[in-house]
Write a structure and sequence with these properties.
The complex is a heterodimer.
Chain A: H1 3-19, H2 23-26, H3 39-50, H4 65-73, H5 79-105, H6 113-121, H7 124-131, H8 136-152, H9 155-168, H10 176-183, H11 203-226, H12 231-241, H13 252-257, H14 264-277, H15 279-285, H16 290-304, H17 311-319, H18 333-357, H19 362-392, E1 401-405
Chain B: H1 2-15, E1 19-30, E2 36-47, H2 60-68, E3 73-80, H3 85-88, E4 99-107, H4 114-129, E5 141-142, E6 160-167, H5 174-182, H6 198-201, E7 206-216, E8 220-231, H7 233-236, E9 244-245, H8 246-250, E10 263-269, E11 277-279, H9 286-290, H10 299-308, E12 309-313, H11 314-318, E13 326-328, E14 341-348, E15 354-363, E16 369-377, E17 381-383, E18 389-392, E19 395-396, E20 401-407, H12 428-432, E21 444-452, E22 456-466, E23 482-484, E24 488-491, H13 500-514, H14 520-530, E25 534-535, E26 540-541, E27 545-547, H15 557-580, E28 583-587
Parallel strand pairs in B: 1-10, 16-25
Antiparallel strand pairs in B: 1-2, 2-8, 3-4, 3-7, 4-6, 5-6, 7-8, 9-13, 10-12, 11-13, 14-15, 15-22, 16-21, 16-24, 17-22, 18-19, 18-22, 20-21, 23-27, 24-26
Helix pairs in contact in B: 2-4
Classes of the chains: A mainly alpha, B alpha+beta.
Protein name (chain B): Gpi16 subunit, GPI transamidase component
Organism (chain B): Leucogyrophana mollusca
Organism (chain A): Leucogyrophana mollusca
């Protein structure tokens, strides 16, 4: 069966799912959309905008002004066209994933294409937020398009897509360094044969300038649309200052719900800066394979992002399919898988017990977010271990030898 | 009557110790909500004890029960409905609990015990009045002596005991009224009891029967049989007018007086403010004639008394023909109570995170009503303005909501150096509410104009989300929930009126005076043609709502900080462990 037929079948299945009457109830789910990505808030912002009320004057609307202008002009807001649009974005993301896979393998087509597409389109962490019409679908799409263009060596397109990704979700800035470095190297797998960074770092200066100019243009356009700078604290500021403590599967919300007021700014700074700490160590350690570095940084985001939804871990988990060479070397695959299964059961159950049923309290859901954080962290560490372990190769002939870290 | 007293007097003289007397009285009181309270009181007084129980007027079945169980005082009431003290004031007779209530004072000294007598009394009355009083057993019986004291003027010296029981589920019906009427000397054939038409009585908004027996001096007994009912003439007349008459309320008139009644009167309380007419003309107050007016007393003080009560003597009036007392508000076109707009506002939804706000507005008037709607919700509740839906009778009518002004709630963030510059809009609406943001959360403000079609119910719904607050932002009793302020409905300028004051006049005086001469059909036509839009005379407020917010665990700050930080450092440590350590091959 050719991969095109598989792809078309998957997209058709997803479309049927999106048109089912299910999405109405999912729209309110805290695990599928955060205040920064909720479709309910997007609709509210469009309503306010169309009624000549500044959507950024309240604390309701936290989406980008670009989404606001697009949805209030060309893009649809009613449910059926929205289902088509969101499914189309997912199909594009899946296509980008397939393209990244082909670029990494240096083949125009492979038998594994269908599996790669399926790993994205059938991932429940990804299709449930899409059914909830969360704008995290757009964020994931722009990230995957960035990586696709970077793998294909299309510099300007990659930087523009990255500018979009950063504009939609500020924490995507973590990908800037690996993407810049990926653009001046190749996406092929070098995990098994590490080497020093093969290219001249000075080339990135020009690329950085290009990225900054794209970002500046997007920011300026947003400011013109929003009629002022009021959108900045409402969108980018929110992911740094966490004004809305709506529960999500991440680690931030309950920590800052329970935080003592005088420590709040300090810990906000710690949690934000903590994300940046990972960039250079990972990029230095994986300087031979920067696509893998970008993948690991997405894993960091999937664990520690401010307004986490299931779509972020979903992107990370789906991308594992791009790196089949690491599978034999993962450290504790069964433990990690079981942790993820455990969290996938606990999260919706305890959320329901607390919010709807009223028989559990906030600690129930908090405990399940800890399990989920542990699962994502374990997956990150596993992938990191396998990515380094593969370079050592198989142990020597015969029994009795094992590869460990000193 | 004269012949009757001629008969009675020799009896009193011969017996020397006892005689009987029967009075009947009907009090009619128009209530301010357009209803009419009617109280029939049939009083039979037995002066002195009659050992042989050769009663003429006093009902023998009840006399036998009272004697058998040695009852000093007995009160039985069978009522249906809830007496609305707020709208109707105090009843003429205070026994208005819903269902059956029976209480009796019994003296010591009889052959059987108090509780045996109480059980016997219940069963005897149950048989007499066809009511389920037998089930008022010990599970329902108490002895609240302070709330139900002895009321008799003359009390035998023996110590008394109270037994009291209620049965709220008991329902009064025709089967109770028939034995009740049999206790009256004229049954329902003559006198005031003629008006007790079961079909109308049990159709009343509130109705009840009562039997009240008190002891009087020398072993005498005073028995009051009471029928109270609250009729709704507005309903009976098809929802328009509050005029009433015996014919309209009871579907009967008084054709004959009860010959054995020593007095039979109808008293009508007259409303103070409205212009009404009463037919037949009430006779002059007998009190004014009997008591020469005290000249030193100012004339004005006796004036309200004269005006507040009209008294009819039934035997006198019946001799001229059937008596049908009627009251009419001739200048009033249509009666409206309560105000033409009725508002209900509720919170829906079982989830602690999401819900819906619903306002149900009922326009009872014949004209479209235009009102302003103001909702100020604190920042802990987020109203989704795009989900506002307006329905009339289940059909979406979003066009009835106009002039929407909305300012979403604002919760402060460390970055909010907020300059409230509206987005490229120069509409007067947004400028009208130029919000000046201070530091701190500001409420959301929703203002709109609603137009209610005549005789319709408009339902406005909007979804809302509840905020998740920091643990320090919750009040000490967080589980109680948060009070949301009530909505305000206010007058708005309507076409044909320059300001709200004139629209108030148009609303109130026009139906009363301008259209009074027209018939209903012409009024309806002109109303359609003009389609006068009315507004409210004053602001109306809805009650506050209680919203329960999802709460964190208030005892957890340290635990959460410790657990979350542990997880972060665990992952951080593992990552840097993997990244920094070198690889070796070891022999195991």
């Amino acid at each position: 069966m050719s991969s095109e037929i598989v792809f078309a079948g998957l997209v058709a299945g997803r479309l049927l799912l999106a048109l089912a009457p299910l999405p109405g109830a999912l729209k309110y789910d805290h695990q599928l959309s955060s205040p920064l990505t909720s479709h309910l808030r997007l609709q509210e912002g469009i309503f306010l905008y169309q009624n000549d009320i500044d959507p950024y004057s309240g604390s309701v609307f936290r989406h980008s002004p670009l989404l606001l202008s697009l949805f209030s002009t060309v893009l649809p807001t009613s449910s059926v066209p929205c289902a088509f649009l969101w499914t189309l974005c997912d199909a594009l993301s899946a296509y980008a994933l397939v393209a990244i896979w082909r670029a990494r393998q240096r083949v125009p087509k492979s038998t594994r294409d269908g599996l790669v597409a399926a790993s994205y389109l059938l991932n429940p962490y990804l299709f449930l937020p899409t059914l909830a019409l969360s704008t995290s679908t757009f964020e994931n799409m722009s990230v995957l398009l960035t990586l696709m263009f970077a793998s294909q060596g299309r510099t300007s397109a990659a930087l523009l897509a990255l500018a979009f990704a950063t504009h939609l979700s500020l924490s995507s800035i973590l990908l800037l360094v690996p993407v810049l470095l990926l653009l001046i190297t190749a996406p092929t797998s070098q995990l098994a044969s590490p080497r020093p960074f093969p290219s001249d770092l000075h080339k990135t200066a020009l690329l950085l300038g290009e990225f900054v100019s794209y970002s500046a243009i997007l920011t300026l356009a947003s400011t013109i649309v929003a009629g002022g700078w009021s959108w900045v604290p409402q969108t980018w500021g929110a992911s740094l200052s966490l004004p809305d403590l709506t529960p999500n599967p991440g680690l931030w919300w309950y920590f800052f719900t329970e935080m003592f007021d005088h420590f709040r700014p300090f810990f906000l700074m710690v949690f934000s800066v903590h994300l940046l700490i990972y960039i250079f160590p990972i990029c230095i350690k994986f300087q031979h394979d920067l696509l893998y570095a970008a993948f690991l940084l997405l894993g960091v985001l999937a664990t520690f992002k401010a307004y986490l939804t299931l779509a972020d871990p979903g992107l990370f988990l789906s991308m594992i399919v791009l790196f089949p060479e690491i599978y034999p070397y993962t450290r504790h695959p069964i433990v990690t898988t079981l942790l993820h299964l455990h969290a996938a059961l606990l999260l919706p159950l305890f959320h329901h017990l607390w919010i709807s049923q009223g028989t559990g309290n906030a600690n129930f859901f908090y405990a399940s977010t800890l399990v989920f954080g542990m699962a994502n962290g374990a997956a990150l560490v596993d992938c990191m271990w396998a990515g380094l372990r593969i370079a050592v190769g198989e142990a020597k002939e015969g029994e009795g030898w094992e590869v460990v870290q000193e | 009557m004269v012949s009757w007293s001629l008969l009675v007097v020799p009896l009193v003289v011969l017996g020397g110790v006892w005689c009987e007397e029967y009075e009947e009285d009907l009090v009619l009181r128009p209530l301010r909500d357009g209803k009419v309270s009617s109280t029939f009181t049939f009083t039979t007084v037995l002066h002195g004890a009659d050992p042989a129980q050769h009663y003429t007027l006093f009902p023998l079945p009840l006399g036998q029960i009272l004697r058998e169980y040695a009852i000093t005082e007995l009160h039985l009431s069978l009522n249906a409905g809830k007496w609305n003290y707020d709208a109707w004031g105090y009843p003429e007779h205070p026994a208005v609990p819903t269902g059956a209530e029976l209480w009796a004072w019994m003296p010591d000294g009889a052959a059987s015990t108090i509780d045996d007598r109480w059980a016997g009394l219940r069963n005897a009355l149950a048989g007499l009045f066809c009511a389920s009083l037998g089930s008022l057993d010990h599970r329902r019986t108490s002895s609240p002596v302070q709330a139900y004291p002895l009321q008799s003027s003359h009390i035998p010296s023996a110590p008394h005991h109270l037994r009291h029981a209620t049965l709220p589920s008991e329902h009064v019906c025709t089967e109770n009224l028939t034995p009740f009427l049999k206790l009256l000397p004229c049954k329902s054939r003559a006198g005031l009891a003629r008006l007790l038409n079961p079909q109308r009585l049990f159709d009343a908004d509130w109705h009840g029967l009562g039997v009240h027996v008190l002891s009087t001096e020398g072993g005498g007994v005073e028995m009051k049989l009471v029928v109270q009912a609250v009729f709704d003439p507005v309903r009976l007349s098809g929802g328009k007018r509050r005029d009433w008459s015996f014919q309209s309320l009871f579907d009967r008139t008084i054709n004959a007086a009860c010959p054995v009644a020593s007095s039979s009167s109808v008293r009508v309380f007259l409303p103070e403010e409205q212009i009404f007419s009463l037919s037949p003309e009430p006779e002059p107050q007998p009190s004014d004639e009997s008591q020469p007016r005290d000249e030193s007393q100012p004339h004005d003080e006796s004036q309200p008394h004269d005006k507040s009560l009209a008294i009819y003597d039934v035997p006198t009036l019946v001799s001229h023909g059937p008596l049908d007392v009627a009251m009419q508000w001739t200048t009033e076109h249509a009666f409206q109570y309560p105000p033409p707009l009725s508002i209900q506002r509720t919170l829906h939804g079982t989830s602690q995170a999401h819900g819906a706000l619903a306002c149900t507005l009922t326009n009872r008037g014949p004209a479209p009503l235009r009102v302003g709607y103001l909702e100020t919700l604190p920042a802990l509740v987020t109203l989704w303005a795009h989900t506002i839906r307006v329905e009339v009778g289940g059909v979406g009518r979003d066009d009835l909501l106009t002039d929407l002004i909305y300012h979403p709630s604002h919760s402060p963030s460390p970055f909010s150096s907020h300059s409230s510059s509206p987005s490229s809009s120069s509409s007067p609406q947004t400028h009208a509410h130029a919000h000046t943001h201070t530091h701190g959360p500001s409420p959301s403000l929703l203002q709109a104009t609603l137009t209610l079609p005549p005789y319709s119910t408009l339902r406005l719904t909007a979804e809302l989300s509840r905020a998740f607050l920091r643990y320090t932002e919750h009040p000490p009793d967080a589980m109680r929930g948060w009070d949301l302020p009530g909505a305000v409905f206010f007058p708005v300028p309507v076409p044909g009126s320059t300001d709200s004051a004139s629209s108030f006049n148009a609303n109130h005086s026009a139906p009363t005076f301008n259209h009074s001469a027209r018939t209903d059909s012409t009024y309806a036509q002109t109303d359609e043609a003009h389609a006068h839009i009315h507004t409210l005379p004053y602001r109306m407020h809805t009650p506050a709502l209680l919203a329960d917010l999802p709460t964190p665990d208030f005892s957890m700050p340290y635990n959460v900080i410790i657990l979350s930080c542990t997880l972060v450092t665990l992952i951080f440590g593992s990552v840097f462990n993997v990244l920094t350590r070198g690889w070796v091959v070891v022999e195991v």
